[in-house]
Amino acid sequence: MTRHVVLRVLAKLLIPLIMLFALYVQFHGDYGPGGGFQAGVIFAAGIILYALIFGLEAARRSFPPRVLEALVAAGVLIYGGTGVATMLMGANFLDYNALAHEPEHGQHYGILLVELGVGITVTAVMVTLFLHFAGRRRAG
Amino acid sequence: MPAEAVHLVLFTFLAASAIAIIRLHDLFAAVMLAGIFSLLSAALFTVMDAVDVAFTEAAVGAGISTLLMLGTLALTDSQEQPEHNRRRPLALAVVCLTGAALFYGTLDMPAYGDPNAPIHHHPIIERYMETSLDEIDIPNIVTSVLASYRGYDTWGETTVIFTAAIGVMLGLGGARRRRHGPHEPGDASDVVPDEWESVGPEAGGDEGGGEDGDAEEKP
Amino acid sequence: MLLDVLGWAFLAAGSLVVLTGSLGLLRLPDFYARIHAAGMTDTLGAWLILSGLMFQCASVLVAIKLALVLAFLVLTSPLSSHALAKAAYLRGLAPWTGDPPPPRGEEGERAG
Prior knowledge:
A: elongated, B: mainly alpha, globular
Protein backbone atom coordinates (compact mmCIF):
# COMPACT_ATOMS: atom_id res chain seq x y z
CA MET A 1 0.00 0.00 0.00
CA THR A 2 1.44 3.36 -0.90
CA ARG A 3 1.72 5.83 1.90
CA HIS A 4 0.26 9.30 1.93
CA VAL A 5 -2.29 8.58 -0.78
CA VAL A 6 -4.28 11.77 -0.33
CA LEU A 7 -1.20 13.97 -0.33
CA ARG A 8 0.30 12.32 -3.38
CA VAL A 9 -2.83 12.47 -5.49
CA LEU A 10 -3.56 16.08 -4.72
CA ALA A 11 0.06 17.07 -5.12
CA LYS A 12 0.11 15.54 -8.59
CA LEU A 13 -2.91 17.67 -9.35
CA LEU A 14 -1.63 20.88 -7.81
CA ILE A 15 2.06 21.05 -8.68
CA PRO A 16 1.52 21.48 -12.45
CA LEU A 17 -1.04 24.20 -11.70
CA ILE A 18 1.42 26.00 -9.44
CA MET A 19 4.13 25.88 -12.09
CA LEU A 20 1.72 27.07 -14.76
CA PHE A 21 0.71 29.96 -12.55
CA ALA A 22 4.36 30.81 -11.98
CA LEU A 23 4.91 30.98 -15.74
CA TYR A 24 1.82 33.15 -16.07
CA VAL A 25 3.09 35.56 -13.43
CA GLN A 26 6.52 35.65 -15.06
CA PHE A 27 5.36 36.62 -18.49
CA HIS A 28 2.45 38.84 -17.49
CA GLY A 29 4.57 41.13 -15.39
CA ASP A 30 4.20 43.61 -18.20
CA TYR A 31 0.44 43.76 -17.94
CA GLY A 32 -0.33 43.31 -14.29
CA PRO A 33 1.35 42.64 -11.00
CA GLY A 34 4.10 40.14 -11.38
CA GLY A 35 7.53 39.80 -12.81
CA GLY A 36 10.62 37.80 -12.17
CA PHE A 37 10.86 37.83 -8.38
CA GLN A 38 7.31 36.70 -7.67
CA ALA A 39 7.36 34.08 -10.40
CA GLY A 40 10.65 32.64 -9.19
CA VAL A 41 9.33 32.27 -5.65
CA ILE A 42 6.10 30.61 -6.79
CA PHE A 43 7.97 28.18 -9.02
CA ALA A 44 10.30 27.33 -6.16
CA ALA A 45 7.27 26.76 -3.92
CA GLY A 46 5.98 24.17 -6.37
CA ILE A 47 9.32 22.37 -6.39
CA ILE A 48 9.53 22.46 -2.59
CA LEU A 49 6.03 20.99 -2.35
CA TYR A 50 7.23 18.15 -4.55
CA ALA A 51 10.24 17.65 -2.28
CA LEU A 52 8.09 17.63 0.86
CA ILE A 53 5.60 15.05 -0.38
CA PHE A 54 7.68 12.73 -2.52
CA GLY A 55 10.87 12.81 -0.48
CA LEU A 56 14.21 14.53 -0.73
CA GLU A 57 15.80 11.78 -2.81
CA ALA A 58 13.17 12.03 -5.52
CA ALA A 59 13.52 15.80 -5.53
CA ARG A 60 17.29 15.60 -5.82
CA ARG A 61 16.94 13.17 -8.73
CA SER A 62 14.53 15.45 -10.54
CA PHE A 63 16.36 18.67 -9.74
CA PRO A 64 20.02 17.78 -9.36
CA PRO A 65 21.93 20.22 -7.16
CA ARG A 66 24.63 20.63 -9.77
CA VAL A 67 22.10 21.80 -12.36
CA LEU A 68 20.60 24.17 -9.81
CA GLU A 69 23.99 25.68 -9.07
CA ALA A 70 24.47 26.24 -12.79
CA LEU A 71 21.04 27.86 -13.05
CA VAL A 72 21.80 30.25 -10.19
CA ALA A 73 24.68 31.62 -12.19
CA ALA A 74 22.88 31.39 -15.54
CA GLY A 75 20.17 33.85 -14.52
CA VAL A 76 22.68 36.48 -13.49
CA LEU A 77 24.57 35.75 -16.70
CA ILE A 78 21.46 36.35 -18.80
CA TYR A 79 20.87 39.67 -17.11
CA GLY A 80 24.44 40.84 -17.47
CA GLY A 81 24.63 39.40 -20.93
CA THR A 82 21.74 41.57 -22.02
CA GLY A 83 23.64 44.60 -20.81
CA VAL A 84 26.80 43.53 -22.57
CA ALA A 85 24.84 42.84 -25.76
CA THR A 86 23.48 46.36 -25.75
CA MET A 87 26.99 47.65 -25.26
CA LEU A 88 28.19 45.58 -28.19
CA MET A 89 25.49 47.15 -30.31
CA GLY A 90 26.81 50.60 -29.56
CA ALA A 91 24.53 51.89 -26.80
CA ASN A 92 25.04 52.21 -23.04
CA PHE A 93 24.93 49.28 -20.62
CA LEU A 94 21.33 48.01 -20.31
CA ASP A 95 19.99 50.50 -22.85
CA TYR A 96 17.39 48.29 -24.48
CA ASN A 97 16.69 50.63 -27.36
CA ALA A 98 19.60 49.14 -29.25
CA LEU A 99 18.33 45.57 -29.20
CA ALA A 100 15.98 45.81 -32.18
CA HIS A 101 15.19 48.04 -35.14
CA GLU A 102 12.57 50.00 -33.28
CA PRO A 103 13.12 51.25 -29.73
CA GLU A 104 9.82 49.88 -28.39
CA HIS A 105 10.55 46.39 -29.64
CA GLY A 106 14.00 46.64 -28.17
CA GLN A 107 12.46 47.56 -24.82
CA HIS A 108 10.12 44.58 -25.01
CA TYR A 109 12.97 42.18 -25.75
CA GLY A 110 15.11 43.72 -23.07
CA ILE A 111 12.48 43.52 -20.35
CA LEU A 112 11.61 39.95 -21.34
CA LEU A 113 15.21 38.78 -21.15
CA VAL A 114 15.93 40.62 -17.94
CA GLU A 115 12.85 39.29 -16.11
CA LEU A 116 13.69 35.80 -17.36
CA GLY A 117 17.14 36.08 -15.85
CA VAL A 118 15.71 37.26 -12.53
CA GLY A 119 13.12 34.47 -12.48
CA ILE A 120 15.67 31.75 -13.19
CA THR A 121 18.03 32.99 -10.51
CA VAL A 122 15.35 33.36 -7.84
CA THR A 123 13.92 29.88 -8.52
CA ALA A 124 17.29 28.18 -8.40
CA VAL A 125 18.37 30.10 -5.29
CA MET A 126 15.23 29.27 -3.32
CA VAL A 127 15.37 25.57 -4.19
CA THR A 128 19.09 25.42 -3.42
CA LEU A 129 18.56 27.06 -0.04
CA PHE A 130 15.78 24.64 0.79
CA LEU A 131 17.77 21.57 -0.24
CA HIS A 132 20.73 22.72 1.82
CA PHE A 133 18.61 23.37 4.89
CA ALA A 134 16.49 20.26 4.62
CA GLY A 135 19.29 17.85 4.03
CA ARG A 136 21.18 18.44 7.21
CA ARG A 137 21.00 16.25 10.23
CA ARG A 138 20.47 17.68 13.64
CA ALA A 139 23.76 18.09 15.52
CA GLY A 140 24.32 16.10 18.66
CA MET B 1 -13.66 56.45 7.40
CA PRO B 2 -13.68 52.72 6.57
CA ALA B 3 -10.22 53.06 5.05
CA GLU B 4 -8.83 54.38 8.31
CA ALA B 5 -10.58 51.61 10.23
CA VAL B 6 -8.96 48.95 8.05
CA HIS B 7 -5.55 50.57 8.47
CA LEU B 8 -6.06 50.79 12.23
CA VAL B 9 -7.07 47.15 12.56
CA LEU B 10 -4.18 45.92 10.43
CA PHE B 11 -1.60 48.00 12.26
CA THR B 12 -2.95 46.87 15.63
CA PHE B 13 -2.62 43.23 14.63
CA LEU B 14 0.85 43.93 13.28
CA ALA B 15 1.96 45.46 16.58
CA ALA B 16 0.31 42.66 18.58
CA SER B 17 2.05 39.93 16.60
CA ALA B 18 5.39 41.74 16.86
CA ILE B 19 5.06 41.94 20.64
CA ALA B 20 4.04 38.28 20.77
CA ILE B 21 7.09 37.24 18.73
CA ILE B 22 9.36 39.02 21.19
CA ARG B 23 7.72 37.62 24.28
CA LEU B 24 7.32 34.00 23.25
CA HIS B 25 9.80 31.38 24.33
CA ASP B 26 8.50 28.69 22.02
CA LEU B 27 10.39 29.25 18.79
CA PHE B 28 7.96 27.24 16.67
CA ALA B 29 5.11 29.56 17.58
CA ALA B 30 7.39 32.55 16.97
CA VAL B 31 8.14 31.35 13.44
CA MET B 32 4.44 30.94 12.72
CA LEU B 33 3.78 34.42 14.03
CA ALA B 34 6.53 35.77 11.78
CA GLY B 35 4.64 34.29 8.85
CA ILE B 36 1.46 35.96 10.05
CA PHE B 37 3.38 39.23 10.35
CA SER B 38 4.42 38.98 6.71
CA LEU B 39 0.86 38.20 5.68
CA LEU B 40 -0.46 41.25 7.53
CA SER B 41 2.21 43.40 5.88
CA ALA B 42 1.10 42.08 2.50
CA ALA B 43 -2.50 43.00 3.36
CA LEU B 44 -1.35 46.50 4.34
CA PHE B 45 0.47 46.92 1.06
CA THR B 46 -2.65 45.84 -0.84
CA VAL B 47 -4.77 48.35 1.04
CA MET B 48 -2.21 51.02 0.12
CA ASP B 49 -2.58 50.07 -3.58
CA ALA B 50 0.95 48.68 -3.95
CA VAL B 51 0.01 45.33 -5.43
CA ASP B 52 3.39 44.25 -6.82
CA VAL B 53 5.05 44.76 -3.47
CA ALA B 54 2.19 42.95 -1.70
CA PHE B 55 2.56 40.01 -4.07
CA THR B 56 6.27 39.73 -3.44
CA GLU B 57 5.90 40.16 0.32
CA ALA B 58 3.22 37.46 0.54
CA ALA B 59 5.20 35.01 -1.56
CA VAL B 60 8.58 35.57 0.05
CA GLY B 61 7.66 36.48 3.61
CA ALA B 62 4.70 34.23 4.27
CA GLY B 63 5.94 31.40 2.10
CA ILE B 64 9.62 30.82 1.60
CA SER B 65 10.91 32.64 4.66
CA THR B 66 8.64 30.72 7.05
CA LEU B 67 9.65 27.48 5.35
CA LEU B 68 13.36 28.17 5.68
CA MET B 69 13.00 29.18 9.32
CA LEU B 70 11.11 25.96 10.03
CA GLY B 71 13.91 24.07 8.35
CA THR B 72 16.39 25.81 10.63
CA LEU B 73 14.24 24.99 13.66
CA ALA B 74 14.59 21.31 12.86
CA LEU B 75 18.30 21.71 13.47
CA THR B 76 18.25 23.73 16.65
CA ASP B 77 16.38 23.73 19.93
CA SER B 78 12.77 24.64 19.71
CA GLN B 79 12.69 26.52 22.97
CA GLU B 80 14.50 29.73 23.57
CA GLN B 81 16.89 29.65 26.46
CA PRO B 82 15.44 31.83 29.21
CA GLU B 83 17.83 34.48 30.33
CA HIS B 84 17.96 36.23 33.62
CA ASN B 85 15.88 39.36 33.52
CA ARG B 86 18.42 41.89 34.62
CA ARG B 87 17.31 45.46 34.58
CA ARG B 88 19.33 47.56 32.22
CA PRO B 89 18.33 51.19 32.80
CA LEU B 90 21.01 52.68 30.57
CA ALA B 91 19.91 50.62 27.54
CA LEU B 92 16.28 51.46 28.20
CA ALA B 93 17.11 55.17 28.36
CA VAL B 94 19.04 55.08 25.09
CA VAL B 95 16.22 53.22 23.29
CA CYS B 96 13.57 55.61 24.59
CA LEU B 97 15.64 58.63 23.60
CA THR B 98 16.17 57.30 20.06
CA GLY B 99 12.49 56.42 19.73
CA ALA B 100 11.45 59.89 20.89
CA ALA B 101 13.83 61.49 18.41
CA LEU B 102 12.38 59.40 15.57
CA PHE B 103 8.82 60.31 16.55
CA TYR B 104 9.80 63.96 16.60
CA GLY B 105 11.30 63.57 13.15
CA THR B 106 8.14 62.12 11.68
CA LEU B 107 6.11 65.09 12.81
CA ASP B 108 7.75 67.03 10.02
CA MET B 109 6.85 64.58 7.27
CA PRO B 110 3.89 65.23 4.94
CA ALA B 111 0.56 63.59 5.65
CA TYR B 112 -0.08 60.13 4.27
CA GLY B 113 -1.23 60.38 0.66
CA ASP B 114 -0.79 64.13 0.47
CA PRO B 115 -0.70 65.17 -3.19
CA ASN B 116 1.36 68.26 -2.37
CA ALA B 117 4.24 66.31 -0.90
CA PRO B 118 7.60 67.22 -2.44
CA ILE B 119 8.17 63.68 -3.68
CA HIS B 120 5.28 63.98 -6.09
CA HIS B 121 6.64 67.09 -7.76
CA HIS B 122 10.07 65.91 -8.70
CA PRO B 123 10.50 66.26 -12.47
CA ILE B 124 11.56 62.66 -12.85
CA ILE B 125 8.07 61.51 -11.81
CA GLU B 126 6.46 63.28 -14.72
CA ARG B 127 9.17 62.00 -17.02
CA TYR B 128 8.46 58.40 -16.04
CA MET B 129 4.68 58.58 -15.89
CA GLU B 130 4.16 60.46 -19.12
CA THR B 131 6.70 58.89 -21.40
CA SER B 132 6.57 55.31 -20.14
CA LEU B 133 3.75 54.27 -22.42
CA ASP B 134 5.36 55.91 -25.46
CA GLU B 135 8.88 54.75 -24.93
CA ILE B 136 8.41 51.31 -23.46
CA ASP B 137 4.88 50.46 -24.53
CA ILE B 138 3.87 48.20 -21.64
CA PRO B 139 0.88 48.97 -19.43
CA ASN B 140 2.47 48.26 -16.06
CA ILE B 141 4.55 51.25 -15.04
CA VAL B 142 6.01 49.43 -12.04
CA THR B 143 7.64 46.89 -14.32
CA SER B 144 8.82 49.55 -16.73
CA VAL B 145 10.50 51.49 -13.94
CA LEU B 146 11.89 48.34 -12.34
CA ALA B 147 13.23 46.66 -15.45
CA SER B 148 14.01 49.49 -17.80
CA TYR B 149 14.38 52.90 -16.23
CA ARG B 150 16.02 51.49 -13.09
CA GLY B 151 17.32 48.30 -14.63
CA TYR B 152 20.70 48.81 -13.07
CA ASP B 153 19.24 48.64 -9.55
CA THR B 154 17.44 45.41 -10.38
CA TRP B 155 20.74 44.07 -11.69
CA GLY B 156 22.19 44.82 -8.26
CA GLU B 157 19.29 43.05 -6.53
CA THR B 158 19.78 39.95 -8.63
CA THR B 159 23.46 39.94 -7.77
CA VAL B 160 22.56 40.21 -4.08
CA ILE B 161 20.33 37.13 -4.31
CA PHE B 162 23.12 35.32 -6.13
CA THR B 163 25.58 36.26 -3.40
CA ALA B 164 23.20 35.04 -0.72
CA ALA B 165 23.02 31.66 -2.44
CA ILE B 166 26.81 31.50 -2.70
CA GLY B 167 27.10 32.33 0.97
CA VAL B 168 24.69 29.59 2.00
CA MET B 169 26.37 27.07 -0.25
CA LEU B 170 29.75 27.90 1.22
CA GLY B 171 28.54 28.01 4.77
CA LEU B 172 26.24 25.03 4.89
CA GLY B 173 28.05 22.29 3.09
CA GLY B 174 29.48 21.01 -0.10
CA ALA B 175 33.00 21.76 1.05
CA ARG B 176 33.68 18.38 2.57
CA ARG B 177 33.39 15.64 0.02
CA ARG B 178 34.21 12.32 1.50
CA ARG B 179 34.09 9.57 -1.03
CA HIS B 180 33.92 6.38 0.94
CA GLY B 181 31.42 3.64 0.53
CA PRO B 182 29.70 2.41 -2.58
CA HIS B 183 27.69 4.88 -4.56
CA GLU B 184 25.08 4.14 -7.11
CA PRO B 185 25.72 5.23 -10.68
CA GLY B 186 23.91 8.40 -11.50
CA ASP B 187 23.78 9.39 -7.87
CA ALA B 188 24.35 13.03 -7.04
CA SER B 189 26.77 11.83 -4.37
CA ASP B 190 29.82 13.63 -5.65
CA VAL B 191 28.04 16.91 -5.10
CA VAL B 192 26.09 15.95 -2.03
CA PRO B 193 28.33 15.33 0.98
CA ASP B 194 28.19 11.99 2.64
CA GLU B 195 26.71 13.36 5.80
CA TRP B 196 23.51 13.96 3.85
CA GLU B 197 23.17 10.39 2.71
CA SER B 198 21.91 9.07 5.99
CA VAL B 199 19.47 11.90 6.34
CA GLY B 200 16.29 11.26 4.55
CA PRO B 201 12.64 11.08 5.23
CA GLU B 202 12.93 8.10 7.52
CA ALA B 203 16.08 8.91 9.43
CA GLY B 204 16.26 11.33 12.28
CA GLY B 205 12.60 12.13 12.34
CA ASP B 206 13.38 15.74 13.03
CA GLU B 207 12.29 17.12 9.70
CA GLY B 208 8.85 18.55 9.24
CA GLY B 209 5.70 16.54 9.18
CA GLY B 210 5.33 16.08 5.48
CA GLU B 211 8.57 14.22 5.22
CA ASP B 212 7.67 11.59 7.75
CA GLY B 213 8.04 8.42 5.78
CA ASP B 214 7.32 7.90 2.17
CA ALA B 215 7.44 5.07 -0.23
CA GLU B 216 11.07 5.58 -1.16
CA GLU B 217 13.19 2.67 -0.07
CA LYS B 218 16.71 3.54 0.92
CA PRO B 219 19.15 2.23 -1.69
CA MET C 1 -30.44 45.43 -5.42
CA LEU C 2 -31.17 41.76 -4.82
CA LEU C 3 -27.58 40.88 -5.67
CA ASP C 4 -26.38 43.47 -3.20
CA VAL C 5 -28.50 42.06 -0.38
CA LEU C 6 -27.46 38.50 -1.23
CA GLY C 7 -23.84 39.54 -1.25
CA TRP C 8 -24.06 41.18 2.15
CA ALA C 9 -25.94 38.18 3.57
CA PHE C 10 -23.25 35.77 2.40
CA LEU C 11 -20.48 38.01 3.69
CA ALA C 12 -22.14 38.28 7.09
CA ALA C 13 -22.65 34.51 7.27
CA GLY C 14 -19.04 33.93 6.25
CA SER C 15 -17.78 36.32 8.91
CA LEU C 16 -19.89 34.54 11.51
CA VAL C 17 -18.42 31.19 10.48
CA VAL C 18 -14.87 32.56 10.66
CA LEU C 19 -15.57 34.04 14.09
CA THR C 20 -16.96 30.72 15.35
CA GLY C 21 -13.97 28.91 13.94
CA SER C 22 -11.57 31.27 15.69
CA LEU C 23 -13.44 30.81 18.95
CA GLY C 24 -13.16 27.06 18.53
CA LEU C 25 -9.46 27.40 17.80
CA LEU C 26 -8.97 29.01 21.16
CA ARG C 27 -11.28 26.93 23.29
CA LEU C 28 -11.27 23.37 22.03
CA PRO C 29 -9.33 20.92 24.17
CA ASP C 30 -7.39 18.87 21.66
CA PHE C 31 -5.15 19.43 18.66
CA TYR C 32 -7.32 17.35 16.33
CA ALA C 33 -10.44 19.23 17.40
CA ARG C 34 -8.67 22.50 16.74
CA ILE C 35 -7.79 21.31 13.23
CA HIS C 36 -11.51 20.77 12.69
CA ALA C 37 -12.19 24.36 13.75
CA ALA C 38 -9.43 25.82 11.59
CA GLY C 39 -10.50 23.71 8.63
CA MET C 40 -14.05 24.95 8.95
CA THR C 41 -12.74 28.49 8.88
CA ASP C 42 -10.73 27.77 5.77
CA THR C 43 -13.34 25.88 3.79
CA LEU C 44 -16.84 26.99 4.70
CA GLY C 45 -15.80 30.50 5.64
CA ALA C 46 -13.90 30.92 2.38
CA TRP C 47 -16.86 29.57 0.39
CA LEU C 48 -19.30 32.01 1.95
CA ILE C 49 -17.06 35.06 1.80
CA LEU C 50 -16.00 34.44 -1.79
CA SER C 51 -19.59 33.79 -2.86
CA GLY C 52 -20.62 37.05 -1.22
CA LEU C 53 -17.84 38.85 -3.10
CA MET C 54 -18.90 37.22 -6.35
CA PHE C 55 -22.40 38.61 -5.96
CA GLN C 56 -21.03 42.09 -5.52
CA CYS C 57 -18.40 42.35 -8.19
CA ALA C 58 -18.77 44.56 -11.19
CA SER C 59 -17.98 42.33 -14.14
CA VAL C 60 -18.31 38.67 -14.99
CA LEU C 61 -14.57 38.31 -15.51
CA VAL C 62 -13.86 39.17 -11.88
CA ALA C 63 -16.53 36.67 -10.81
CA ILE C 64 -14.86 33.94 -12.87
CA LYS C 65 -11.48 34.73 -11.31
CA LEU C 66 -13.00 34.55 -7.84
CA ALA C 67 -14.57 31.19 -8.75
CA LEU C 68 -11.15 29.92 -9.78
CA VAL C 69 -9.68 31.10 -6.47
CA LEU C 70 -12.51 29.25 -4.72
CA ALA C 71 -11.79 26.07 -6.65
CA PHE C 72 -8.13 26.27 -5.68
CA LEU C 73 -9.06 26.79 -2.02
CA VAL C 74 -11.42 23.80 -2.13
CA LEU C 75 -8.48 21.68 -3.24
CA THR C 76 -5.83 23.00 -0.89
CA SER C 77 -7.42 23.75 2.47
CA PRO C 78 -8.67 20.20 3.18
CA LEU C 79 -5.27 19.02 1.97
CA SER C 80 -3.47 21.18 4.51
CA SER C 81 -5.75 20.07 7.36
CA HIS C 82 -5.17 16.48 6.38
CA ALA C 83 -1.41 17.00 6.21
CA LEU C 84 -1.38 18.60 9.67
CA ALA C 85 -3.45 15.83 11.25
CA LYS C 86 -1.41 13.13 9.57
CA ALA C 87 1.87 14.65 10.68
CA ALA C 88 0.64 14.88 14.25
CA TYR C 89 -0.64 11.31 14.19
CA LEU C 90 2.58 9.93 12.77
CA ARG C 91 4.52 11.71 15.50
CA GLY C 92 2.44 9.92 18.11
CA LEU C 93 0.07 12.57 19.34
CA ALA C 94 -2.85 10.66 20.79
CA PRO C 95 -6.33 12.16 20.56
CA TRP C 96 -8.01 13.36 23.69
CA THR C 97 -10.80 10.97 24.49
CA GLY C 98 -12.00 12.29 27.82
CA ASP C 99 -11.33 8.95 29.46
CA PRO C 100 -9.43 8.91 32.72
CA PRO C 101 -5.69 8.43 32.25
CA PRO C 102 -4.52 4.82 32.12
CA PRO C 103 -3.03 3.29 35.25
CA ARG C 104 0.73 3.49 35.68
CA GLY C 105 2.64 0.68 34.02
CA GLU C 106 1.24 0.97 30.53
CA GLU C 107 3.61 2.42 28.00
CA GLY C 108 2.64 5.41 25.93
CA GLU C 109 -0.38 4.43 23.94
CA ARG C 110 -0.84 5.15 20.27
CA ALA C 111 -4.44 5.67 19.36
CA GLY C 112 -6.01 3.43 16.81
